[in-house]
Amino acid sequence: MKKVFALVDCNNFYVSCERLFRPELIGCPVVVLSNNDGCIIARSNEAKELGIAMGTPFFKIQSLIKRHKIKVFSSNYALYGDLSNRVMDILQKWEPEVEIYSIDEAFMTLPPSRVCSLTEYAQQLKNRVLQCVGIPVSVGIASTKTLAKIANRIAKKNGYYKGVFDLTDNENIDTALQATRVEDVWGIGRRYAQKLNNHGIYDALQLKGVNDKWVRKHLTISGLRTVMELRGISCIVSDNSQSHRKSIVSSRSFGREVSSSADLKEAISSYASIAAQKLRSQKLAAGFIHVFLTTNQFKGDQPQYSKSMMVSLPQPSSYTPTIIKSALHGLDQIYKDGYHYKKAGVMLTGISSGKHKQLSLFGSAIKESNCLMNAVDYINSKWGRNTMQSASAGFAKPWSMQQSFKSPSYTTSWQELPLVKAS
DNA sequence: TCTGGGGTCCTAGGACCC
DNA sequence: TCTGGGGTCCTAGGACCC
Q1: DSSP3 helix / strand / coil % (chain A, rounded to 5)
Q2: Gap from A329 CA to B12 C1', in Å?
Q3: Does domain A4-10+79-230 have CATH number 3.30.70.270?
Q4: Which nucleotide comes closest to A103 if you measure CA to C1'?
Q5: Phi, psi at residue A51, to the nearest 5°?
Q6: Which residues pair with A346 in a beta bridge?
Q7: Which residues, by CB, come closer than 7 Å to strand B?
Q8: Using an 8 Å Cβ cutoff, are A370 and A376 in contact?
Q9: pLDDT 10s digits, A120-151
Q10: What's the whole-number average pLDDT of chain A?
Q11: Architecture of the domain delimited by A13-76
């Protein structure tokens, strides 16, 4: 029997998280900003209706914000991450096969036999999530993940379906595909959409019928997989192997432009610490450290410079002092005086399980204290990030990002618990 | 004044080897 | 005038995702 996939997607997830603790904002236009309060990364339906596009720079829509009294939030990842975990818990209790795809989406494999219809089954799940966590979700059901994405889009856009749309019925598929533009197909981005349009292909039904050879040549093997999925042949398999991630990045745009080597060293130390902590939290170690910095590409009148460099470690490590030291060594090599830098970062690669370390050929293992890192991680998890930190990361942090509109961490910080007053 | 961060996969091309 | 072919590894860059 053919597999059936359900894509469960939280509606306007970050906005829904903010509204959960500010119910008076239901029905009002709300937006959430990227780090550094740079771009719009989430919009309520009311904000979408005002024509605010995803990724719009915040500073460009100031007057619109004022005119329509749009409520603005800086991103609060502690809150979103916690609520995401709660939603995923419900899904995992509901069905054994759940693939968490992103902070606000998961693919579920539905059982072949059940007492009610697929639509009723998904409605029950949707109600359960709303009841237990308070986050509204939409569910798209189909025989492949790409079709489930399309079904989900229809469930969201068309109120008639009440948040659930079943596309397993073959008769509906082509109608749905015809109503879907190629750029709205999962796996087709701006560039590929342009290419397809130039070739006379505008909707998903046309894409489904394109010659395989042409697709393979112009959209690579990934594009061909997308087309096969539109045809109902499931070929985007879930990666349920216990494989760990291949890279870990920590980077930020600065709150203001940075020129001095001293400030950059602080920032790089800080990012290196964050990356090392992420490594340890997944019990991994890294073999290579990449450091990069770049000037503000939006300022065409200023001299531009960007550079990256890789530093190899003698043996894989997750020890913060080692990671910081190597990152600063890399920074020394690429830093050039006289530029206004906008962004810098640290990327860790050559990632392996921390248990099996390849030791250096000469001499014994380098001394790194796991106990010390365990203690630091424990203290920071209990009392908040940066309760203990490396001195090289600085204290005033004049380069740190702006977050002017951040809501409290309602669910993850004792100090920020919401208060309820009886009157 | 103000334009995110963190990932993955694929391909082309160069270096190098036999 | 003539100057191989094929495999592998690495890196940079492009494209996509949320």
Answers
A1: 40, 20, 35
A2: 31
A3: yes
A4: C18
A5: 90, 15
A6: A250, A291
A7: A 34-36, 38-39, 41, 55, 57-59, 62, 220-222, 239, 245-253, 256-257, 274, 278, 296, 298-299, 342-343, 345, 401
A8: no
A9: 999 999 999 999 999 999 999 999 999 999 99
A10: 89
A11: 3-Layer(aba) Sandwich (3.40)
